[in-house]
């Protein structure tokens, strides 16, 4: 009796469930495959983790649809009516009334200071991303960027700082500021620039922008149109993809510890009619000690887990992955980004009544640069690269900050109390010093929360992507020393096939396939990149069994 090819998908995140959905819906009528999805965690979704905080729907992981024009995630969300909800959710519409920019020491910054630096930064990023020609527009600072003749292989971080220097060269005649205490114009401009850099760190997950490859940045694509969040939660898209699968296909709590495969065809066997049912080449070891045999395995685990699993003394793959693969894995970047949710208490206690008129503004935060003697001693180091603190929707008492790099990792180790104290100290450090500058104090400090009464936060929730062994970080980026080609390499199936001749000789082709956000050359780091990669690998198998369009 001929057995059906067995496909095991490792990981029930966006990539794995998209692949499962495609394989199942394309072949369920002719019952072609045996399909299993093994997931190490106790839930589906992976880096999509819709949750709840203070009664509001929030996202611990993936948050935005990055451009609705042509996004498959948007299309699904719209089709399943996940974009409509009567419950409050993390829609971030508080930004529609201009965020306030506040600087350490207690200064609300005028748009006339902030806007030119924001424009400079955005233009520089547009150049880095290939959306704007370096010499376009009449901006002298941007023209300055072209004068070094191509940017070689440098980092986005170096490029940005060059742009800032060129800007300063082009406006030496700007007047010194007054009314901002110890802040000079140059210091303030640098600190505003750094605030934007910190936002960019969370967008890319590169803890240090000097490690973010400049050349590759322009290959990354976003969809056009608005960026929105999903009212019913990102998880609704995942649940929709999983809903077609019969019960039992997804196996939760099944952490894969080892994958044995057969890199070479030792004894090619001619099989006239396709499938050889006698042996399945891949052996998958699960943490409970059980073993699963498969013809094909689609690996969707994160780049961070792959980095850890292919390191020197860790053998997730047996035999180890070939060096072209492990080198790409080690060169590519994979960073930590975390979200912190806080409940603000307008009147210092936990019972936020409906008659509370106080509203926490969307804050953009400007800190003194590293090593500055003007730094406020009580602000903890792990808060100092946080670019914003904003309500999750207009008038919400739930606030959100994003963290990247070592600050994000530190956040994971802190107790709730340490976080509450650290954030309170920070916000207090943004309030005016007791004596001067009263007229410049941020408005929100003048109301109920002013004059000695500390700004109070009462509850916290944070993500922990860096220390969770199933993720070991948040998303990938192209690090200096790597390139877009490494992302393509990530996607190559094993055993590697060189030519058609060799192809015929391979006894068991397509044993290990790779999907996941880190395998997509232009949409890496996103949910739709993961989606596309899952489709790609499902189609690779469908094509292999010549059932495209069944
Ligand atoms: C804080 C944060 C914010 C983000 N914001 C956005 C955003 O706004 N927009 C956007 O598009 N993207 C965002 N992303 C990125 C997006 O979430 C990911 O790119 C995408 O979800 C990755 O999907 P995946 O299927 O490739 O991987 P994953 O979701 O990681 O799926 C892999 C699965 O494999 C499982 N697994 C791991 N190891 C094993 C093992 N040994 N055995 C069995 N199972 C295992 C994991 O538990 C996981 O479920 C964000 C991510 C984070 C962390
Ligand atoms: C936010 O809510 C207030 C009233 O609560 C309203 O006046 C304001 O227009 C709202 N802003 C936005 C952007 O919806
Ligand atoms: C801020 O800008 C306003 C006008 O836009 C101006 O009147 C005010 O003096 C400025 N304040 C500072 C401190 O520059
Ligand atoms: C990167 O830049 C350095 C210094 O400019 C140069 O020596 C090196 O050859 C460059 N490498 C590549 C791959 O372009
Ligand atoms: C997912 O969300 C839950 C809260 O709903 C939280 O306990 C868990 O730690 C989150 N996972 C990660 C990796 O942040």
UniProtKB/TrEMBL annotation:
Co-factor(s): FAD
Amine oxidase domain: residues covered: 14-542
Location in the cell: Cytoplasm
Keywords of this entry: Cytoplasm, FAD, Flavoprotein, Oxidoreductase
Superkingdom in the source lineage: Eukaryota
InterPro entries: Amino_oxidase, FAD/NAD-bd_sf, Flavin_monoamine_oxidase
Chloroplast as UniProt keyword: no
Family according to the record: Belongs to the flavin monoamine oxidase family.
Name listed for the protein in its UniProt record: Amine oxidase domain-containing protein
Organism: Hibiscus sabdariffa
